[in-house]
Amino acid sequence: EIYQHPQAVRASLEGRVVEKALRDVVDSTLDLSSVTRVQCLACGTSYYACMVAKYLIEEHCGVPVDVDLASEFRYRPATLSANTLSVAVSQSGETIDTLFALKYAKEQGSMTLALVNAEGSSIEHEADATFPLKAGVEVGVASTKAFSAQMSALLLVGLQIAKAQGKSAPEVRDELLHNMLRLPQTIETILEQLDGAMSDIADELKDTPGYLFMGRGAEWPVAQEGALKLRELAYVFAEAYAGGELKHGSIALVDKDSWIVAVAPRDKHFEKMMSNIAEIKARGGNVLAIGTEGDSELESISDHFVGVPNVSEPLIPFLTCIPLHLFAYWVARHKGNDVDQPRNLAKSVTVE
Predict the structure, then answer these.
(1) What is the pTM of this model?
(2) Can you tell me the distance from the alpha carbon of 246 to that of 253, in angstroms, rounded to the nearest whole number?
């Protein structure tokens, strides 16, 4: 299913983006011109996809986005209105906390949208409108391809809101959509080029007892997703931090036995990430860096360097997540774990 990332992105765009033109991706029964805020509700990998989308939508669509863990949202007073679009994101469409959070949002008078992969689900039936991912059945308990499809779908929703409200210039929107259409082929190239390299790195590091992941901006939730996959599949401690928080406590964990996975592509946060990595190296830490192809500066201070192609900044998270998924997969494989049915986990969490 990791190798189905390209198909998942392609399916999310099919029929919705045609020759750079954005067709209506959300049912016209929702008045997107009146939306003043988007409220995303999700759990696990879906939550991290929403976090990535928050950065992208707020910056490139001009629409405020809040993201809540569904399991927490439903137990606090919500400040929603008829101008809030609450988006429930769930691969299975049956995640119980997300379903109840959606019902709660609906009770508060919010417009509701289901962003699901499985057809005919409970979340789909509860929402005012549905954006089907069409990513194909995902069997593995640890979600992978749905992550890419969810990011893509959420960005399309943001772009449609911006279009309805005149918040994005047509030429800027068209360029972004054009670049999105090229993503599947780029991801296919990454999978072909990096699978063997990630297997080799994973084999070397398979006995590492724990990892710190680090990123900034939209790469912070990508780092969180990478850490989650390693926990789920490899059964090792892995936690992710925003790069700017390193000095606020986490750096105390760094020593010569530490491995830090730094997601540091050539984006606007690059210089700050380089500073973080230098701090880690100065304390004897080891760094596996995910960066931009050909970045000799980053490679020179990393113990392992993995590069992804240089694409427009809002689409970088679609690429940096791929080596992280491969890394978790291969660490688990080299440890002899069942990557499709990890212990103690269920594909669809239908209990509270």
Answers:
(1) 0.95
(2) 10
Whether 56 maps to a domain, the answer reads: yes
Whole-number Å distance between alpha carbons of 14 and 148: 14
Q: Within a domain: residue 176?
A: no
Nearest by Cα to 275 from 292, 293, 298: 298
Tens-place pLDDT, residues 97-143: 999 999 999 999 999 999 999 889 999 999 999 999 998 888 888 88
- Strands (E) in 35-190, as ranges, are 37-42, 65-69, 84-90, 111-116, 129-132
d(CA 208, CA 304): 14
Residue 261, beta-bridge partner list: 213, 288
Q: What pLDDT was estimated at residue 52?
A: 98
188 and 115 co-located in one domain: no
Concatenated DSSP letters for 219-230? HHHHHHHHHHHH
Burial state string for 201-230 with b = 16 or more CB within 10 A and e = fewer than 16: bbeebbebeebbbbbbbbbbbbbbbbbbbb
The whole domain housing 83 covers 2-168
Do 9 and 51 lie in one domain? The reply is yes
Could you tell me how far CA 48 lies from the centroid of its own chain?
Answer: 5
pLDDT 10s digits, 304-341: 999 999 999 999 999 999 999 999 999 999 999 998 88
CA distance to 86, 89, 139, per residue, from 287 (Å): 39, 33, 32
